[in-house]
Amino acid sequence: MGILSLCCFLVFSIHKLVDAQITTESNEVIAIKKVIDYWGLSSKVNLSIDPCTRDASWATENANPRIVCDCSNNICHITHLKLYALDISGELPQELFQLTELIDLNLGQNVLNGSIPKEIGRLFKMQYLSLGINNFSGVVPMELGNLTDLKSLSFSSNNFNGPLPIDLGKLTSLEQLYIDSSGVSGPFPQELSNLKSLHTLWASDNGFTGKLPEFLGTFTNLKTLRLEGTSLEGPIPSSYAALTKLEDLRIGDLGGEDSTLDFLVNFTSLSILSLRSSRVGGEIPSQIGTFANLQILDLSFNKLKGAIPDSFQDSQSLHFLYLGSNDLNGVIPPNIITPQLRALDVSFNSITGNLPANFTKIGRSMNAVGTLVNGDGLLEGKTSEISRCLVTDNQCTEKVPVNSFAVKCGGSSMVSTYGVAFDDDSETLGASSVYTGSNNRWVVSNTGSFISNPNGPQYTTQTASQITATLDSELYKTARISPNSLRYYGLGLRNAKYNVELHFSEIQMDDDSRSSWKGLGRRLFDVYIQGERVLQDFNIRNEAQGSNKALVRSFEANVTNTIIDVHLVWAGKGTCCIPVQSTFGPLISAIHVSQVSSRGGSSNDKKQVGRIVGITLGGVAGIFIACSVFYLWWKKKTPEHVRILTDSPKKSLTSV
Question: Taking the complete model, does pTM exceed 0.85, yes or no?
Answer without folding.
Answer: yes
